[in-house]
Amino acid sequence: MDRVESAGGQLGAVLSAPRSGAAALAPGGPWLATDLAQARRVLADPEAFDFPGNVNRTGDLSGSRGETRSGHTVFAPVPPDAVARGVATFEREWTAALADHRRTRPDVPYDAMLLLRRPVARSTTSAVLPSASDETRNRVGDHVLAWIDALGPVIAAHRRPWRWGRVRRTERDTRIALEDVLEEALDAEPDVDLSPQQAATMLAAGIQVPIAAGAFLLAWLAQQPAPVEPTSAAWETLRLTPPTWLTARVTTREVELGGTTIPQGRVVFVSPLLLGRLSDLVPGGPGGLDQFDAGRWQDGGRRPGAWLPFGAGPHACPGRNLGMGILVALAAWGAKHELQLSKTVRIDQSRGISPTPCWFTAAPRSEHDL
Ligand code: HEM
């Protein structure tokens, strides 16, 4: 897999930023929080750091550019019974997706970003819509995937792409189709207090990010010489390659952050990818912090997650337990298989980060390997 450390673009700029105070990534910003105290303040003080962009409209949770959106919904955490249902759905659907691939394309490697789509979509949908029949769940899941796909070019566009009208229209059509099926599905959900628009946001965030995280997890596992303990594998994946590697806020007034003065109306980033490489947050000595080492979590001495892979404050991830549950279930499957990458994995930075392509083969390990 390509090393994140050698990636260019915004990722490279964040990793090579000075590690003191709030770092200006360019003259006049954006700024970057470079330690945990700064990051916590940015995420947990909405009076000074507002949530930018409109997730309902763009679905972009990975560094939107622009307008503020005061009054944004605060989502309730996914409750434990919904997490359990979502994880059970994932396990069933992952087994089914593998079997389907083996039956229809036995000679072709698995494509992680493709293979994970339906299992994750159905898992998150079954968690968010507890009363949905399998048929409704699958239909909603497919509509969310279509909307996520249509959002891709909108989010990735630094400038209006050629044929912007068509890009926008496709995004709007897929969003409206999703909201229509959700309106009907939500009629049967007396205990779910979400509008179709809010449910669409929740589902898109809860499907796109775990697909990328799961694919990174498989890529990391394929590079390990021996089976890896599943929970530690999930944390190492979210430390080295957190899909939501950059989150943004906009200053509502002039603020002082880490001794740096930032004017009003400027973008400030928090990067779990940067924080996950700080030796005060991660055990194992400063030397190997860019290496995947699941063993670093096994003595229980340091709390995993201090680098905020699920954010913090009022907009912290409401689906973190489901996200972790999916990753741990996937890592448990991975521990029972010998995985091999079929191609060099590239790190796509167009929408958060994702491993694209991430092709692999899998063979069951023999009992004595485990
Ligand atoms: C491994 C999986 C996941 C990771 C790494 C992840 C990461 C994150 C992060 C970092 C944020 C905060 C963004 C910010 O502060 O700007 C976030 C927000 C969010 N996540 Fe997750 N997430 C995951 C899974 C899920 C799942 C399964 C769901 C739904 C069931 C979900 C729903 C959301 C929503 C709705 C938000 C927006 C919260 C708000 O704006 O108030 N996520 N996620």
UniProtKB/TrEMBL annotation:
Keywords attached to this Swiss-Prot or TrEMBL record, sorted alphabetically, are: Heme, Iron, Metal-binding, Monooxygenase, Oxidoreductase
Source domain of life is Bacteria
Q: Does the keyword Kinase apply?
A: no
In residue numbers, the region (Disordered) covers 54-73
Task: Tell me yes or no: is Metal-binding among this UniProt entry's keywords.
Answer: yes
What cofactor does its activity depend on? heme
InterPro entries (alphabetical)? Cyt_P450 (IPR001128), Cyt_P450_CS (IPR017972), Cyt_P450_sf (IPR036396)
Q: What CDD domains does the database record attribute to this sequence? A: cytochrome_P450
The cross-references to Pfam families, in alphabetical order and at most eight, read:
p450 (PF00067)
Family label: Belongs to the cytochrome P450 family.
**Record PANTHER family:** CYTOCHROME P450 26, LANOSTEROL 14-ALPHA DEMETHYLASE
- Output this protein's name: Cytochrome P450
Task: Tell me the organism's taxonomic lineage.
Answer: Bacteria, Bacillati, Actinomycetota, Actinomycetes, Propionibacteriales
